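Before anything else, study the sequence and fold tokens given here and see whether the fold suits the sequence. Record follows:
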Amino acid sequence: MDSEFFREYQNKLSIDETLYAKIKKIMKEKRISEEKFYDNTLLNRNVMYDIKQNKSRPQLRTVITICIGLNLEPYESLELIRTAGYTLSKSLFLDCAYMEIIFNYYDNDIIECNEILEKLGVDEKYHLGSRQRY
């Protein structure tokens, strides 16, 4: 059997991990430094601090931002979204727009994804990253 399959299977078994633990694990596997993470996601450090402290559930757009910033495959993104306590609905416009990004543009950067969200008609308050960093 393929070792990649077994690695992915082991990742699926760790469903009790916190969102922060999963993000750090992915960063380690992909060899992404914290600085590169912040550059890729355009998030400010307070966001990750809040996730680490488990103060409150992050916004869905924040989780999608992390998925895109880490260039996660669609199934990895859906797992991270689930870990954060969300599901995406085909009957909600915003969720469908996020699914479009996750499934078709996961290898693009945050700015490119926001341009796509803009073209889809998604309000800027739901765009990815931290708006104050633009």
Q: What stands out?
A: The chain has a mean pLDDT of 89. The chain has one domain: 3-133. Residues 3-133 form one domain.
